[in-house]
Specification:
The chain has 301 residues and is α/β, with parallel strands linked by helices. It has 8 helices and 13 strands.
Length: 301
């Protein structure tokens, strides 16, 4: 009777269906597959696995510190696990969607993940308008870094290095914000890293639609995770009554509400609407709240 080999630890740095790329503590990468027909593993997961010929088999996933995901009416999309921070990259040209930004920040807050906003293209005239729209987020304590990734690469690289070093960071951003430029600026041999994983998992043309792990340096002192999916950011995993506590400017006023179950829409003695009238909550943020509350209050199946 053979004795099963002891499980080995590993980090998921690539995933495509049931197939995952696992990196060992010795920096070897092994193509592994899960035992079932489906896999819940995502980039950033820590796993225990066993060798099986030239490949490996996943025994189990180790407990996660966190998981960032979005859920719409049809499906759930997991971005990555065990994150230290979220970097949302936006720009003034094209002008970012404040609704999408808010959704990403709420999802991160629900998962207990600190967020940073990166404003790119600060060399362009539209940056002034973008700064005005981002002012409420600075007042509520969100960190903002300003970047000009193409025209001032050296200064941008320095700011990003200070932010990213020693952390596992997921970067999200809409098309045109400069996410690819950012990755190529801060990641040595980015194309080689993603190419290696793509070839191993036979994901080929799917690399632009799947999550990708990049080491920031040879010492592996930090990592950047690139993921698509910013355009459609459903929050159906969050109950409507949880919405306001996850929005810092709203949360600051919750203690002033007359009713403990106040929805902050039309109840008398609402602290949130009083803060809105005082200018402590922007009208646009309040409109986003109403939009989200209506969306999350719809019947769930």
């Amino acid at each position: 009777m053979s004795i099963p080999a002891p499980s080995r630890e590993g980090l998921v740095v690539g995933a495509h269906g049931r197939h995952v790329m696992v990196e060992t503590p010795e920096r070897e990468r092994v193509h592994c597959h899960t035992r079932g027909k489906k896999s819940e593993l995502v980039v950033g997961d820590r796993v225990l696995w066993q060798p099986a010929g030239d490949e490996g088999v996943i025994d189990r996933m180790m407990p996660r510190r966190n998981l960032l995901f979005r859920q719409d009416e049809w499906r759930t999309k997991s971005f990555a696990a065990n994150l230290d921070q979220l970097l949302v990259l936006v720009a003034g040209e094209p002008m970012f969607s404040e609704s999408q930004l808010t959704r990403a920040l709420i999802a991160a807050a629900e998962a207990g993940i600190p967020s940073v906003i990166g404003l790119n293209k600060t060399d362009l005239p539209a940056a002034a308008t973008a700064r005005e729209r981002l002012a409420p987020y600075l007042r509520m304590g969100v960190t903002l870094i300003e970047l000009a990734l193409r025209t001032d690469a050296a200064a941008s690289r320095e700011r990003l290095a200070a932010l990213l070093k020693g952390h596992t960071t997921l970067v999200l951003g809409p098309s045109g914000a400069g996410k690819s430029t950012l990755i190529n600026l801060v990641v040595p041999a980015a194309a080689a890293q993603v190419g290696e994983i793509s070839r191993a998992l036979a994901s080929g043309r799917h690399t632009t639609t799947t999550t990708t792990w990049y080491w920031l340096d040879d010492d592996r002192s930090g990592a950047l995770i690139d993921s698509p999916g910013f355009q459609e950011f459903g929050l159906r995993q969050i109950a409507p009554e949880r919405l306001a506590p996850l929005m810092p400017d709203f949360a600051a006023a919750l203690g002033e509400c007359r009713f403990h179950n106040c929805t902050h829409r039309n109840e008398p003695g609402c602290g949130v609407r009083a803060a809105l009238e005082r200018g402590e909550i922007s009208e646009y943020r309040y409109r986003i709240y109403l939009e989200l509350h209506e969306e999350l209050s719809q019947k769930r199946w």
